[in-house]
Amino acid sequence: MTEPITVAPISADQHLAWVRDQRAVSFLQTPAWAQVKTDWRTESVGWFEGERLVGAALVLYRPLPRIGRSLAYVPEGPAIDWSSPRLVEMLRALRDHVRRRKAFVLRLGPPVATHRWHALTIKDGISDPRVGRYDEATPDVVEPEGTAVVDQLRRLGFRHLSADDGFTAGQPEYVFRIPLAGRSEADVLAGMNQLWRRNIKKTEKNGVQVRVGGAQDVAAFHRVYVETAERDRFTPRGREYFERMYAALSAEDPDRIRVYLAEHEGDVLAATVFVRVGEHAWYSYGASTAAKRELQGSTAIQWRMLRDSIAAGASVYDLRGITNTLDTENPHIGLIRFKVGTGGEAVRLVGEWDLPLNPLLYRAFSLYMNRR
């Protein structure tokens, strides 16, 4: 007889044990992330088949003022078997749990790919005036698991939070990744374009040094990050956020998070925040100075993080979000070209989905968010 599937709160230790037993889990789904998102109420939950733990999630709750109802959000999760024949039961069990927690909507971001475009396909798309977006170019791979998850979510009443450029208020739907499984440093270098390989050699010739920093170097990263924000016109996060992120993730696992600094003759040229959980490594935040740009500090730091990822046994190096564009007139196309030069691939994920639990409140909330 099949045991019923239930969802119940679990301890941070139980949650971490589950994460450590998986090949890869998003760092947004680690118990340490609860200490980073201090402006949300958080809860670790587990899926149980009888008494056996078969999944885990970090749920973030954002309450609506004066109403006593919350948005329940599972960013880049949950960490369950998305190919399970009991997926519908698992999602319904989570729905019922957050409803008991007085959530008016359940928001998920399944970490499952639906489509992949290889570097050559992307370059061809950029040069083709008839193609302006990834979803207008024929993908090299269509993932059956991702397609099945999308179908299940629709059947359960979830609504896709789509955006023309691939970015919603939460996590990106399109990301750029470099596959590493079974590849050596030489393999990855050979997969890069000539400009990347030439620039890597240039950084070595010019004496650019890359080092792994510690907690004391978060301030140096933040100074470069603020300079980048002013130059690129985005609102930077405060230094306290990164200090909290470094402290929480490194306390959970000393190899979870690193600060990298590319330096030349005492000057910091570029700085990044790198995160790894199991076989998945992320280039999470990056910044560079306007000075000495010809020395290619950003190239040097990316190559070092890639090499360290390979050495750690990572199967993927994730450069995070990209916009859904192949249009040469788009201001983001320079960043796309930079990433394509690594020889990686663009990946479309299932994306973020809402399941309204209180239709009236959800409609009001959606109207408010659309007006912002």
Automatic annotation (TrEMBL):
Q: List, in alphabetical order, the Gene Ontology terms for molecular function in this entry.
A: aminoacyltransferase activity
PROSITE patterns for the chain: FEMABX
- Provide this UniProt record's keywords sorted from A to Z: Acyltransferase, Cell shape, Cell wall biogenesis/degradation, Peptidoglycan synthesis, Transferase
**GO terms (BP aspect):** cell wall organization; peptidoglycan biosynthetic process; regulation of cell shape
According to the lineage, what is the superkingdom?
Bacteria
Q: Which family does it belong to?
A: Belongs to the FemABX family.
* Name recorded for this polypeptide: Lipid II:glycine glycyltransferase (Peptidoglycan interpeptide bridge formation enzyme)
Give the source species.
Terracoccus luteus
